[in-house]
Amino acid sequence: MLLTIDVGNTHTVLGLFDGEDIVEHWRISTDARRTADELAVLLQGLMGTHPLLGDELGDGVDGIAICSTVPSVLHELREVTRRYYGDIPAVLVEPGVKTGVPIMTDNPKEVGADRVINAAAAIELYGGPCIVVDFGTATTYDAVTGRGEYAGGAIAPGIEISVEALGLRGAQLRKVELARPRQVIGKNTVESMQSGILYGFAGQVDGVVGRMARELADDPGTVTVIATGGLAPMMLGEASAIDEHEPWLTLIGLRLVYERNIGRS
């Protein structure tokens, strides 16, 4: 089985693939202070609960694919693969790794590994042209051409970042639960903040995606918009531009990149 690890700024998502199927997944907080040994213990604890895996670390895992937006965590995971999975093929997504996605930006090295991985998965699953909207610490918009090229994108503050900033800078405001209010016109401060957050971001998604689609294709209607990320479910049904929801887009992309560099397990 293939272990995939997607390290984001706030959360790390792990997925276990049996062929093309995700048979287990976990979400943990990203902590840049964790050492390789601590990460290895954490992995052992998580995987030890799965019936298809043995008691030993790595038992039943025959491949690993990792991407990270946090360089210090990537460094420690590299050490984990060396010390604890030395006999298992591992792909860490970084410059030089074959993704199958040409990057058409001014400086390809600036593009986050997760964004390229998402583009690879989006093309495989839905074809192009398409736009991936990833609702994470930041809300990222990634445009992929009909030829499978990464054209570029946009980065906006994430939903949680905006909620925290509003609570910190507003003298009479506080952090609220990210939930759908009863109606758009809030009857109290909490509902008003929830309405502004939810429908404000939905409007942002529709606006940015609409403009991107017009630049990406002669017929914007041919552009498929895929939502992913931990906060994507909040936007489903609110942002009319979203066509598809794939919560495991990055993990699927990691599987594809592993196969392109190592081969099928």
What labels would you give this structure?
265 residues; alpha/beta; five-stranded mixed beta sheet
Helix fraction?
25-40%
Annotation field: number of helices: 7
Strand proportion, as a percent range, falls in 15-25%
Beta strand count? 10
Shape: globular
**Largest sheet properties:** 5 strands, mixed
- The radius of gyration computed from the alpha-carbon positions, rounded to a whole number of angstroms, is 19 Å
Can you describe what's shown?
With 265 residues, the chain is an alpha/beta fold. The chain has 7 helices and 10 strands. The chain has helices at residues 36-47, 71-84, 113-126, 159-169, 189-216, 232-235, 249-261; strands at 2-7, 11-18, 21-29, 63-68, 90-92, 130-135, 138-144, 150-157, 224-228, 244-245. It has a 5-stranded mixed β-sheet, with helices on both faces. Strand 7 and strand 8 (150-157) form a beta hairpin. The protein is globular and about 60 Å long. The relative contact order is 0.15.
Question: What is this entry, summarized?
Answer:
The chain has 265 residues and is α/β, with parallel strands linked by helices.
